[in-house]
Amino acid sequence: MKMTPFNFPLRTLATVFVASSLAFGSASCSNTADTAATDTTDMATTDTGAMTTDPAMAGTDGTAMDDTSGKNLAENAMAVPQMSTLATALKASGLADKATSGGPYTVFAPTNEAFEALPAGALDDLLKPENKEKLASILTYHVVPGSVMAADLTDGQEVTTVDGKKLKVSISGGTVMINGATVVKADVKSSNGVTHVINQVLMPQ
């Protein structure tokens, strides 16, 4: 299964994803039962194909996000200018520290463009101190316990987030989607998990 090329600008979200204090503190580190596909044969044989690294994903030192396993989730997010919105959100939600330890976690990380696509004023509103809990709830909706690689995902599979909600996986023609958001770069490894970059912000029902 070949993933689509990674291409995105990110504004302030380098820290937003790695879950609320309660969610991360109580989540299991494996999530094997929740994230396992119903057909284990498909999980074992799914091929993600060759991954490409877009220049836009280069770190602040000009290097690409290929050799990232020595850094934690927050460090990898903050190393990419296009994910600055994620970093800002993580800080505003109080989850920045959670992204540096614990885990492993799987993060479906929206790009800066994904946040820019929210309704006018929505992001600014979420970043206000009085909306801290709401922001944390949205961010934890992007986090799944355990390290779930692209090859572990199958069409129709449901994975459970750290706060107990469900995400639906769709795979068609080599494109992987999570609740309708397209994975534009997969399997960015960290010391405490893995990140899959997506082109939309996932909103819990």
Description of the molecule:
There is one protein chain. This protein is an alpha+beta fold and 205 residues long. It has a single domain (11-198), classed as Roll (FAS1 domain). 25% of the residues lie in helices and 21% in strands. It is built from 8 helices and 8 strands, in the order E-H-H-H-H-H-E-H-H-H-E-E-E-E-E-E. Strands 3-2-8-7-6-5-4 form a 7-stranded mixed beta sheet. Helix 5 (84-93) packs across helix 8 (132-140). InterPro entries: Adhesion/Biosynth-related, FAS1_dom_sf, FAS1_domain. Residues 1-29 form the signal peptide.
Task: Label this structure with key terms.
8 helices, signal, single chain, alpha+beta
Write the element-wise H/E pattern from the N-terminal end onward: EHHHHHEHHHEEEEEE
Please list the strands of the largest sheet in the order they lie side by side. 3-2-8-7-6-5-4
The rounded distance between the terminal residues' Cα atoms is: 29 Å
Shape descriptor = globular
What would you give as the CATH superfamily? FAS1 domain
Q: How would you describe the oligomerization state of the chains in this entry?
A: single chain
Give the class from helix and strand content and strand pairing. Answer: alpha+beta
Helical coverage, percent range: 10-25%
How big is the Rg?
A: 15 Å
Could you say what the CATH topology is called? FAS1 domain
Could you name the CATH class? Answer: Mainly Beta
Integer average pLDDT: 74
**Uncertain residue ranges:** 1-65
Main β-sheet description: 7 strands, mixed
How much of the sequence is in beta strands? 15-25%
Record field, number of beta strands: 8
Number of domains: 1
The appropriate CATH architecture is Roll
Organism: Hymenobacter psychrophilus
Protein name: Uncaracterized surface protein containing fasciclin (FAS1) repeats
InterPro entries: Adhesion/Biosynth-related (IPR050904), FAS1_dom_sf (IPR036378), FAS1_domain (IPR000782)
Signal peptide: 1-29
